[in-house]
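In the design runs reported in the main text, the only information available to the sequence generator was the tokenized backbone. The following block is the verbatim input for one such run; it is reproduced so that readers can re-run the procedure and compare outputs position by position.
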């Protein structure tokens, strides 16, 4: 696994949550080879206006030349009382964003070859 940093805020360290993050990060890095590092922050802050505690998962994923930031602050999503659902949603969003960037980069590298072939 390329550079993975996991932080817990307002919550005790959990081996199960860390294992889940490592699995999802490994899957993401195996799909996209150009990922240089991942930083995950898991928090369970006190929400005084809400009876339950909503999990917050933030990801920073390093790519050559840019960093993809995923912040999941769903104060009104009661599904995120479950930390595993919050993790799943954050990594799904990261996968979609990285796929768009990857497709844009691949398209950019293919486009000049197509233009030169047409002009010949």
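Verbatim output:
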């Amino acid at each position: 696994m390329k550079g993975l940093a996991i932080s817990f805020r307002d919550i005790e360290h959990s081996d199960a949550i860390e294992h889940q993050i490592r699995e999802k990060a490994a899957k993401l890095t195996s799909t996209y080879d150009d990922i240089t590092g991942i930083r995950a922050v898991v928090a369970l802050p006190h929400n005084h206006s809400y009876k339950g505690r909503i999990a917050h998962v933030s990801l920073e994923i390093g790519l050559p030349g840019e960093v993809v930031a995923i912040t999941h602050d769903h104060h009104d999503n009661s599904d995120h009382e479950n930390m595993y659902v919050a993790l799943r949603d954050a990594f799904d969003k990261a996968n979609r964003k990285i796929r768009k960037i990857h497709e844009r980069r691949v398209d950019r590298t293919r486009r000049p070859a197509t233009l030169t072939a047409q002009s010949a």
